[in-house]
Automatic annotation (TrEMBL):
<dbReference type="InterPro" id="IPR029062">
    <property type="entry name" value="Class_I_gatase-like"/>
</dbReference>
<protein>
    <submittedName>
        <fullName>Type 1 glutamine amidotransferase</fullName>
    </submittedName>
</protein>
<dbReference type="InterPro" id="IPR006286">
    <property type="entry name" value="C56_PfpI-like"/>
</dbReference>
<comment type="similarity">
    <text>Belongs to the peptidase C56 family.</text>
</comment>
<dbReference type="Pfam" id="PF01965">
    <property type="entry name" value="DJ-1_PfpI"/>
</dbReference>
<keyword id="KW-0315">Glutamine amidotransferase</keyword>
<feature type="domain" description="DJ-1/PfpI">
    <location>
        <begin position="6"/>
        <end position="167"/>
    </location>
</feature>
<dbReference type="InterPro" id="IPR002818">
    <property type="entry name" value="DJ-1/PfpI"/>
</dbReference>
């Protein structure tokens, strides 16, 4: 499997978009990656917008980004909560500085905005936060998936197959 020996952070908080968390996690695991759900606290059950549970493996403070190869930020309403944690902002900034793959879909762009890493980047997101992305200095494009260096962005659940194929390809070559 091409993602053996790859470790990925999947951020989790209440009200994540169920498909936007679980589809990426399962696809990466199918390709051999170890994916850890990282939340404010370890071993807490977080619930998605549609009730699907996710139990965090570790707390934000339990991990070091240097031990991981990539990070995923799910959409839903969780990003509005995730961006309020200094630990999350630090994780995203560290991954950005190290040029490790950062995946964001739908409303996840809010976390990248708060991490102040979008200036001059080409991205996509749900059209609902297009203005937020542009105001953060990004060039917003309405496409299923956009790659700008190590940043992989996508719009919404119907785009998940293209998003995860692209993210997996970048992770495999990183």
């Amino acid at each position: 499997m091409r993602l053996n020996n790859k470790k990925v952070i999947a951020l989790v908080e209440h009200d994540f978009e169920d498909l936007e968390l679980w589809y990426p996690v399962l696809r990466l695991q199918e390709e051999g990656a170890a994916v850890h759900l990282i939340g404010k606290e370890a071993q807490i059950t977080y619930h998605g917008k549609f009730g699907v549970p996710a139990i965090s493996d570790y707390a934000f403070t339990d991990i070091q980004t240097s031990e991981y190869d990539a990070i995923l930020v799910p959409g839903g309403w969780a990003p509005d909560k995730l961006r309020r944690y200094p630990e999350v902002i630090k994780m995203v900034q560290e991954m950005d500085k190290a040029h490790k793959p950062i995946g964001q879909i739908c409303h996840a762009g809010w976390v990248l905005i708060s991490a102040n890493i979008l200036q001059g980047k080409q991205v996509t997101s749900t059209p609902g936060i297009k203005d937020d992305m542009k105001n953060a200095g990004a060039n917003w494009v309405d496409k299923a998936v956009i790659v700008d260096g190590h940043l992989v962005s996508s719009r919404r659940p119907p785009d998940l197959p293209a998003y995860m194929k692209t993210f997996s390809d970048i992770l495999a070559n990183n």
